[in-house]
Design goal:
The longest helix has 22 residues. This protein is an alpha/beta fold. The protein is globular. Strands 1, 4, 5, 6, 7, 8, 9, 10, 11, 12, 13 and 14 form a twelve-stranded mixed sheet that branches. The chain folds into three domains: 203 residues, ANL, N-terminal domain (Rossmann fold); 114 residues, Rossmann fold, CATH 3.40.50.10090; 97 residues, GMP Synthetase, Chain A, domain 3 (2-Layer Sandwich). The protein binds zinc ion.
Length: 446
């Protein structure tokens, strides 16, 4: 059983959450040395990558040794190992498969889904951190009902709620479930929700109206409603404000751990006793020329190393995620670093010399009523193109109006981004079939 703090405690683990940074670093070094020895011994991908770079765990005694000598692991390296060797775990699994408790996968937004092998109880070292500290900080306490709106991550998530003394209410991440969510929320009055994205918020408006339920009432008991994955558009944000939803952003940290906003809503904390995070210059070729970016708030590419995972730890995993990091203490009293996500390195498109990221196109698309779900894709065969091509989702529009709608979308994008796009309109339902539930790849080759 997980040891729980007294209900009135602000922190789940006051000692660790507010630990001085020098002490965090000491703890990290100890865990890092233990993890690399373990991974080198048990993970074929890590061992082969290190052997190719002519380094062993015996060559690493300090953070400087680690940064100087240890090669990165890329997403492609994991996929290549998986496909080339027929190993579904990409050469990362460190335990016999009969010790596993479950297999989850990532949602696969930017490629085929990656397997996440789980071993509940004994799969990690260290103290409970991710989700425990975050939801406790939002005010969730034992005995509370907890709405779980889940797709590819399931088991460990409701196991966590139970360890926290909460009672999970289970939903599938599906538009069809929203009415049931609204009804059960009125009945059980949950305090926490994980996880409800922009598409779901937008769809709730119509569904609640048809069902005759006031979202303000249904959501009134929540202390924390977590959303993740894609930026919330202005329209979803406005609805959430209108309904009084206490939103908290959440993001993956290089597939190694996750981060959550605290009550300050100024960046997402990740727990540094579970992960070593580096920010590097995104243009780096490999670890030998990677410049560390240590200044708070500067754009960098995130590199993550698992410190407590003993099932399939990633070491110096190069995430392709462009982020900002801050290591200064937060007003909430926690000393662990914060992260702001910006986009994926692979999502940038240069249109006639101008850099465009999906986030730049977003508000223009969703400003038009038929395109209010903000579903669109940037189509580009290579990074540099002459014309910005967009595939944009719409609803409730007769076909005779589509030509005019395409012109309106083009005009809105021009006003926002400064280039005139070529717009292809596709019904929302068709576009949603291109991705995992209610989330689509924002950049595509075709
Ligand atoms: Zn904070």
């Amino acid at each position: 059983m997980t040891q729980l703090p007294p209900n009135e405690s602000v922190y789940f683990d006051a000692e660790y959450e507010t630990m001085p940074r020098e002490q965090i670093a000491e703890l990290q070094l100890e865990l890092l040395l233990e993890t690399i020895a373990y991974a080198y011994e048990h993970s074929p991908l890590i061992r082969e990558t290190w052997q190719a770079a002519k380094v062993t765990p015996r060559d690493v005694a300090t953070f400087d040794d680690f940064y100087e000598k240890v090669p990165f692991i890329s997403k492609d390296a994991v996929r290549d190992f998986r496909d080339g060797r027929g190993d579904p775990y990409g050469g990362l699994l460190c335990v016999p498969t009969d010790e596993l408790t479950a297999i989850m996968s990532t949602s696969g937004t930017t490629g085929d889904p990656t397997l996440v092998a789980e071993k509940w109880g004994g799969g990690s070292v260290g103290r409970p951190a991710i989700m425990y500290r975050d939801f406790w900080g939002m005010g969730v306490r034992p005995g509370d009902f907890f709405s779980l709106f889940l797709f590819t991550f399931r088991g460990p998530t409701y196991g966590f709620v139970q360890s926290l003394g909460g009672i999970p209410l289970l939903f599938d991440y599906d538009l069809m479930e929203i009415e049931r969510l609204l009804r059960l929320s009125c009945e059980y009055r949950p305090t926490a929700m994980y996880n409800f994205g922009g598409t779901m918020i937008l769809a709730t408006a119509d569904i609640a109206e048809r069902a005759g339920i006031d979202p303000r009432d249904a959501f009134s008991s929540y202390k924390g409603m977590v959303w993740a994955g894609e930026p919330l558009g202005a329209r979803a944000r406005a609805l959430a404000d209108e309904w009084g939803m206490p939103l908290f952003e959440h993001s993956s940290v290089g597939d190694v751990t996750a981060s959550f906003e605290c009550s300050m809503h100024n960046g997402m904390h990740f727990w540094e006793d579970t992960v070593l995070v580096e920010g590097i210059d995104p243009e780096a070729v490999d670890h030998r020329d990677a410049q560390a970016i240590t200044r708070d708030g500067e754009r960098c590419e995130l590199v993550a190393t698992a410190l407590t995972n003993r099932v399939a730890p990633l070491i110096r995993y190069r995430s392709d995620d462009i982020v900002r990091l801050a290591r200064t203490p937060c007003a909430c009293g926690r000393t662990h670093a914060r992260i702001w996500t910006i986009g994926r390195k692979g999502d940038e498109v240069i249109v006639a010399g101008r850099s465009v990221l999906p986030i730049d196109v977003w508000s223009a698309v969703e400003s038009l009523e038929p395109c209010r779900l903000g579903l669109f894709q940037v189509i580009r065969a290579q990074r540099e193109v002459d014309v910005l091509r967009l595939r944009v989702g719409y609803q409730d529009t007769p076909s005779a109006r589509l030509g005019a709608l395409a012109d309106e979308v083009a005009g809105a994008v021009l006003a926002k981004v400064g280039v005139t796009p070529e717009v292809q309109l596709v019904p929302n339902a068709e576009l949603l079939r291109l991705g995992p539930p209610h989330k689509i790849p924002r950049v595509t080759k075709r």
